[in-house]
Write a structure and sequence with these properties.
Number of domains: 1
Distance between the termini: 32 Å
Largest sheet: 4 strands, antiparallel
Order of helices and strands: EEEEEE
Strand content: 35-45%
Helix content: under 10%
Radius of gyration: 14 Å
Number of strands: 6
């Protein structure tokens, strides 16, 4: 993807979707060389979404954080 400030970020989505219920679950990972977003290289995301008839999906994505 390209951010509003022109950073290029590769997002890889791995997960499953159930067409009968329309529910999708994913574990996105991010990769970038842009100094402003290097912190994303260490983020493991988790997402749940809705598959839309005719194509497309809407996701809510969260970052997993290690507690101290």
């Amino acid at each position: 993807m390209i951010t509003d400030d022109d950073a290029v970020i590769l997002v890889q989505y791995k997960g499953i979707g159930d067409p009968s219920s329309g529910v999708a679950r994913s574990a996105p990972q991010f990769e970038t060389g842009d100094e402003r977003y290097l912190w994303l290289n260490n983020v493991q995301g988790v997402g749940i979404g809705q598959l839309h008839p005719g194509g497309g999906v809407t996701y809510e994505v969260y970052s997993l954080t290690q507690l101290p």
